[in-house]
Write a structure and sequence with these properties.
About 25% of the residues lie in helices and about 30% in strands. The protein is built from two helices and five strands; from the N terminus they run βββααββ. The longest helix is centred in the middle third of the chain and has 11 residues, at about 25-35. The N and C termini lie far apart (about 40 Å).
C-alpha cells in the first residue's frame, strides 16, 4: 500500500518524491516554476544571493525533476 504526502488539501502518491536543499543544479527548473507561478518571479540572482546568505531553499523532486519549491521564512 503506497503512502502519500499531504500538501495542504492535496495528497500525492509518495512513489518517487523527495525533498532536498536547492542547489545550483536546480536553478533552471526553479526559475521556470517561478515564471509560471508569479507575475513578478524571483530572479536567478535573488535565489543565489539568498543561498549565499544561508537560506534553506527546498525543492520537491519527483523522479529527480523539480516539481515544487519553497523558501521558508528566516525569521
Amino acid at each position: 500500500m503506497p503512502t502519500s504526502v499531504n500538501f495542504g488539501i492535496k495528497s500525492v502518491p509518495n512513489n518517487n518524491i523527495s525533498f532536498t536543499q536547492m542547489s545550483e543544479t536546480h536553478l533552471d527548473d526553479v526559475i521556470a516554476i517561478e515564471q509560471q507561478a508569479h507575475s513578478h518571479p524571483w530572479k536567478t540572482s535573488m535565489l543565489t544571493e539568498l543561498n549565499g546568505r544561508g537560506a534553506h531553499n527546498v525543492v520537491m523532486l519527483e523522479d529527480d525533476k523539480v516539481v515544487a519549491t519553497s523558501t521558508p521564512r528566516m525569521w
